[in-house]
Amino acid sequence: MAATCGAKTADSTAESSKTRDKHLSDVSLGISHTFLKDDKNPALIGFLEGTVYEKSRGKASSGKSWLIGATTYKAIDPVVLALTAAYRINGSKTLSDDVKYKAGNYWMLNPNISFAANDRISLTGGIQWLGKQPDRLDGKKESARNTSTYAHLGAGFGFSKATSLNASARFNISGQSSSELKLGVQHTF
Question: Is-above-0.90 flag for pTM?
Answer without folding.
Answer: no
